[in-house]
Amino acid sequence: MNSKGNSQASPRGRGTGARPASRYASTTVERDPAPPVDSVATELRIERARSIISRNNSPDVPFEQSINMYRGCEHGCIYCYARPAHAYVDLSPGLDFETILFQKPDSVRLLREELARPGYRCRIINLGANTDPYQPVEKTCRLTRGILEVFVETRHPVTIITKGSLIRRDIDLLADLAAHDLASVAISLTTLDNEVKRRLEPRASSGTTRLALMEELSAAGIPVTALLAPVIPAITDHELESLLEAAAAHGATRAAYIFLRLPGEVAGLFKDWLEAHYPDRAEHVMSLVRQSRHGADSSSEFGERMRGSGVIADLLAQRFRLACRRLGLAQGEVRDLATDKFRPPSRGGQQDLF
Fold first, then answer.
1. Which of 192-206, 285-299, 338-352 comes out lowest in average pLDDT?
2. Strands 100-103 and 65-67
3. Which end of the chain has fewer CB atoms within 10 angstroms, the N or the C?
């Protein structure tokens, strides 16, 4: 992206001001950079989906099924590995990803239909694999709430990954599910440095807020995992032990981590971000990343893409294991949940929960 002159100052509250073209566009037009703007409003569009449950067989992902009710994410995390997905709808993985969002209003209906199929086999469904289910638009769209209501009705196991404080609204549903061994929540924790958070994740909740969420969820009987994601060398990696200590003190019982991933257009966006916010160490950061990615910016190899490889990645893994052992934290993002309590949704509406 630097070579094409797409780097641009970020509007207020946004992760990037750059709009690299979709890699799938049939034609690309080179233009002079547009004048910087102070702010960009969020636009919410409708996406009509034919199905809502996505399936994968990746050995790196601790669930086989997931639901994404939204495309794009207003949190604006510069490192987000889901940014390249915006290219599939001919939009930029840069500023468009965090300002042009899509909701799937038929999500609840589609879920009920898929769970009611005679051949459906109950397995954990994850919410938050690509975009945060508790990003700001959920407050009015309420799609995550609707999905959880179906899970309560059908006694279906669910895991959630989020950094959004709106999850507080749904503690009642999650506590109901957790009481039947049907729910766990991973809170994404990146840094406790508010200035780093502001630069890295401009519209996400603070680290202090996320720790408070862990405490509230745990107090309600909901199992909590601290997901250190991503760990960024020379930016946040020095916080690994302190993040785990804080998480354990606030109710987390498990922990996991992901080494910085830079797939597709994310690499260029992240490099621009480094030059803008950490010019004194930008080259050093990328050197450490490449040392952990076989000399490249990113790696898609199973077994390595989440953890990296080489000396730096091995040292990070050792630090993580030792800290978890000292703090009594189980390792791994998701523990097993019950799948034998599932009951298909009723045709006429909600079943009797009692």
1. 338-352
2. unpaired
3. C
